[in-house]
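Justification of computing resources. Each target in the renewal requires a structure prediction run like the one illustrated here; the chain below, 304 residues long, is used simply to show the kind of job we budget for.
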Amino acid sequence: MTLTSQAAPTAGPAARAKRGRRPAALGTLLRNRLAVVALTVLALLLVAAVFAPLLAPDDPNAQDLLARLKPPAWQHGGSAAHLLGTDQLGRDMFSRVVYGTRVSLLVGAGAALLAGVIGTVVGLAAGYFGGWPDRVLMRLADVQLAFPSILLALAIVGFFGSGLWYVILVLGITGWVSYARVVRSEVMSLRSRDFVTEARAIGVTDVAIMRRHLLPNVMAPLATIGTLHVAAAIVAEASLSYLGLGVPKETVTWGSMLADGQLYLGTSWWVAVFPGIALMLTSLAVNITGDALRDVSDPKAYRR
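Resulting structure tokens:
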């Protein structure tokens, strides 16, 4: 009871300090104009993904061979019915780019979430317990790092087959190491702090200590890594789809659109350029957002 009553006063100032940092963090984020632009782009992409059936004028897989390789509306020979032109099968490019947003965001978010869960659990266990669990788990991480992620993803997808959920699973499994290393480092610096020692003294279980006391303290770096991993997963999915090992061909993805358009770069540039621009803007916006979150999570940023 004595330990509990002594710990209570320290929780109050800490909670008040945390609440005081939130407006400062928001102000730091809003002062970063590039981050605001990136967040706006991500918001628009999310709207496009959610409301794709309403925004797309046509079925993305509907073919019209009489209208194949039509240029964008502003170019000679273009039509307002096909704002970004059509591909080699007469499919509307605008509709395909909009529907491709769904797959890219789903794969990016799903892979980052799965990798984050695996890496966080591994990092918490390795950093908190130390000893042989730490050595075993970190050697597994070293083995994972010995293989290039994209080659490992190619091998797994080639063995199990293609599919949206297979791609998310593969990219999640191959991306957990960075989360685990960061969480382990943070936990190792926190496990000897007074609040952890006091929690052990009053009989709090190890699982409860990791969940209640350690996990909240590693959420800021996890958010930053997760944001950057979303961009990496989007590019990896596009690479797999470009090679024909991603999601099935009937599912519209930016990577498969790039693969289809590479033969027409000299004559019908829009078939490959527009999905390439969408992929570039998405990756750039996610990376800028990740950098902004890293700055916000740094307390020194509030005094700049």
